[in-house]
User: Which sequence fits this backbone?
């Protein structure tokens, strides 16, 4: 190959152009939904940054100091993210990507291939940081009436700032794949990543940041600033980026930190390229080795399956689904993050200080019971779209095995349903019961919420299974892609609507019941009938959603077979 | 030409390729036969520069694949068993990109692309996305790409899989014409009729080791029956008694 390394990026550009030229069903819905969320987040970050900057300007030098510190803090947060993202992305771009099978057989110089792959790694690892940091810097710049050079400096800061941690991450990957086979390294990283994220989230919550806004628990000013400043070290690129931007914000130019950023970025590129030329091929060669299977002797599953009152076909489908799930770290490791979020959710209820509003506490508690129900419903739909909706698609190219077997599509899909329902029901029921216990809500509401979760689980898991069969994506690379498809988005919209309607249908009779109970008055017969009707409507809606979802899924699979 | 010297590939304690040596001269079609898992694909991947040999040496057109990878790869056309094609590119875009990888540029590139598309009967689909192609069409597109830069040697893994009789015939004709022009072709195949019909020399690999090498007649003689059909020879050499057990089981 004679041209520059950017030639190797052409297929991705051409593919994107060709993909953009073809319209698929649901493109508009997806664009509206994700575009709307994106614009919302952009505006929130922009206005938050601008508002905070304006507030800080009231405090002259102290405000400047805090702004300077804040910029370093923002970049400090992104630094860790970029390094970890670089490790994970480099595994894919340098070692596991399918197109390497084509490029490595072509006479492409190792140096050109390295630069093309590294450019892709930097772009893939840092686009999210750029998306987040752009509205923040725009907000800060506009609120400070910064000169035009600030925006140019921002660009000149972000590029080397992204390159340095991604280069460090890529170097770690290079080292890892030369020690472990790449696929095993990916699993390890995936697990570490989710454990790390879960631990951070729990840690941040456990330090109870809400106490900072309580006047009685404010620390003294010196202690406060020393705590804030402690992680900002002058040796990190985040500090250089913060200083450079702050100087530019004030109309100046910080050559020292600009030089530090750019020279480090260039040096890390050159150093990494030399290491890549030396060790990439051996690492790539190792990545071709098949990973050893986990849970090959996981007999407990077979024992449990044997004990279940299921037909042999359903037993085998269940065992197969569970083994495939357990052997794929990218699947179950996400549950760790979910578990961490659930713990925080429950912890929030534990530390909720409703005693501070004594006259309202009884009422607020009962309102919270429904908020809790809605939250559990959202957790349920999120888990369902991520784990249940892709279950049919997960059969992938092996779906022919099911279709040629003497199994009805009805049996197949219902097997998927039960496999998804049991863990989700356990998860959300535990969440709801525990939260209501911690809140000490009215016993009647505890029962209503517990029953509502059973109904919602049946309805949402049924809907996810059915829509997953109706809109399968057998060629998707991973379940996240399936969850983000047209069917997945449609499921989320329907799920949110169902949860809202269920909350209304259950909330209205429940509050009526509590109203009459608190006043020790009997419920009028007409009102009682209406309440009963509302409860029954909730039950009916759930059952119809569940069964209709499943039937529509079975019909779609049958139509596919014909 | 392709020259493989004492090639070894180990995965941990498992030896996938064990001291394999072979030599494919210009104009020769060399059949590389062996049962599933014998080490054919691993050997071909080392020849193509996709796998690092544990020991041994591979030369393509006189260039060492490890020491002069660009020169060696520039002389080789590789057709893998599971080829990668950018699914969202059109056939012409894929070939144009491939041409660039091998240093072909200028006005003549599209003429060469069209020539290859005509040769493999894909011209009608030149502006269609690859994702809409059948298996056989993808196979032919990969062959277009492999021959695009006029390689001096070709390593091909199972070229006939998934091709209809017309496609198979086309590929055989192309391989013959290439070998007549002096291209060295190393072809791994399970289709023994194809090997018997096309190959001047054969290497049979079993459990990573070459167990027979020579012309078709030499291999027949080695197996003990010069007049026997190649299938019987292959089964005898690679442990075909399992077939009888299979018969009994069925």
Assistant:
């Amino acid at each position: 190959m004679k041209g520059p390394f950017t030639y190797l990026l052409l297929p991705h550009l051409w593919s994107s152009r060709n993909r953009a030229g073809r319209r698929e069903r649901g493109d508009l819905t997806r664009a509206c939904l994700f575009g709307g969320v994106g614009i919302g987040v952009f505006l929130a970050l922009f206005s938050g940054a601008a508002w905070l900057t304006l507030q800080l300007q009231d405090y002259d030098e102290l405000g400047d100091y805090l702004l300077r510190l804040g910029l370093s803090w923002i970049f400090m947060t992104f630094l860790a993210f970029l390094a970890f993202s670089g490790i994970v992305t480099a595994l894919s771009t340098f070692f596991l990507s399918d197109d390497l099978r084509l490029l490595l057989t072509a006479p492409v110089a190792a140096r050109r291939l390295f630069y093309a792959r590294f450019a892709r790694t930097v772009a893939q690892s840092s686009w999210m940081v750029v998306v987040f940091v752009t509205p923040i810097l725009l907000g800060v710049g506009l609120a400070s009436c910064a000169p035009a050079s600030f925006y140019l400096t921002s660009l000149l800061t972000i590029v080397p700032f992204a390159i340095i941690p991604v280069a460090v991450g890529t170097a770690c990957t290079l080292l890892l794949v030369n020690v472990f086979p790449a696929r095993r390294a990916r699993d390890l990283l995936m697990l570490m990543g989710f454990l790390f994220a879960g631990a951070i989230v729990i840690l941040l919550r456990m330090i109870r940041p809400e106490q900072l806004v309580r006047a009685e628990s404010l620390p003294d000013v010196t202690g406060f600033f020393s705590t804030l400043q402690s992680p900002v070290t002058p040796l990190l690129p985040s500090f250089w980026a913060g200083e450079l931007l702050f100087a530019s914000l004030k109309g100046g130019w910080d050559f020292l930190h600009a030089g530090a950023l750019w020279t480090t970025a260039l040096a890390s590129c050159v150093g990494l390229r030399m290491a890549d030329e030396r060790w990439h091929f051996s690492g790539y060669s190792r990545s071709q080795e098949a990973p050893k299977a986990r849970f090959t002797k996981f007999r407990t599953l077979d024992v449990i399956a044997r004990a279940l009152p299921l037909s042999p076909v359903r037993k085998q489908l269940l065992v197969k689904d569970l083994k495939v799930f357990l052997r794929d770290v990218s699947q179950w490791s996400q549950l760790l993050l979910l578990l961490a979020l659930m713990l925080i959710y429950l912890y929030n209820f534990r530390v909720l200080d409703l005693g501070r509003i004594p006259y309202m506490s009884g009422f607020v508690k009962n309102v919270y019971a429904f908020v809790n129900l809605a939250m559990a419903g959202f957790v349920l739909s999120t888990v369902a779209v991520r784990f249940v909706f892709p279950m049919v698609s997960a059969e992938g190219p092996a779906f022919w095995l099911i279709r040629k077997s003497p199994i009805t599509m009805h049996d197949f899909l219902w097997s998927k349903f039960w496999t998804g329902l049991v863990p989700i029901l356990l998860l959300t029921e535990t969440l709801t019961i525990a939260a209501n216990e911690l809140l000490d809500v009215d016993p009647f509401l505890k029962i209503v919420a517990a029953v509502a979760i059973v109904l919602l689980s049946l309805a949402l898991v049924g809907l996810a299974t059915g829509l997953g069969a109706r809109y399968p994506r057998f060629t998707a690379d991973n379940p996240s892609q399936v969850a983000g498809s047209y069917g997945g988005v449609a499921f989320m919209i329907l799920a949110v609507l169902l949860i809202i309607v269920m909350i209304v249908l259950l909330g209205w009779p429940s509050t009526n019941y509590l109203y009459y109970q608190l006043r020790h008055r009997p419920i009028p017969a007409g009102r009682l009938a209406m309440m009963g009707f509302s409860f029954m409507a909730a039950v009916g809606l759930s059952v119809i959603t569940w069964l209709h979802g499943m039937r529509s899924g079975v019909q779609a699979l049958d139509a596919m077979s014909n | 030409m392709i020259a493989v010297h004492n090639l070894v590939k180990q995965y941990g304690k498992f030896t996938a390729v064990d001291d394999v040596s072979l030599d494919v001269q210009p104009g020769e079609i060399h059949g590389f036969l062996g049962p599933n898992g014998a080490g054919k694909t691993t050997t071909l991947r080392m020849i193509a520069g996709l796998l690092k040999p544990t020991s041994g040496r591979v030369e393509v057109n006189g260039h060492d694949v490890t020491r002069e990878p660009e020169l060696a790869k520039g002389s080789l056309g590789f057709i893998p068993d599971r080829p990668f094609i950018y699914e969202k590119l059109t056939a012409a875009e894929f070939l144009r990109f491939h041409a660039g990888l091998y240093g072909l540029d200028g006005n003549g590139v599209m003429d060469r692309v069209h020539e290859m598309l005509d040769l493999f009967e894909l011209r009608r689909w030149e502006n269609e996305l690859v994702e809409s192609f059948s298996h056989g069409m993808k196979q032919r597109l990969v062959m277009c790409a492999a021959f695009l830069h006029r390689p001096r040697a070709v390593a091909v893994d199972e070229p006939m899989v998934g091709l209809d009789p017309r496609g198979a015939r086309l590929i055989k004709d192309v391989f013959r014409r290439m070998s007549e022009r002096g291209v060295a072709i190393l072809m791994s195949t399970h289709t023994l009729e194809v090997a018997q019909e096309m190959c001047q020399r054969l290497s049979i690999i079993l459990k990573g080791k070459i167990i027979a090498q020579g012309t078709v007649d030499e291999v027949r003689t080695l197996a003990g029956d010069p007049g026997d059909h190649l299938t019987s020879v292959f089964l005898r050499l690679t442990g075909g008694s399992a077939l009888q057990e299979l018969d009994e089981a069925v």
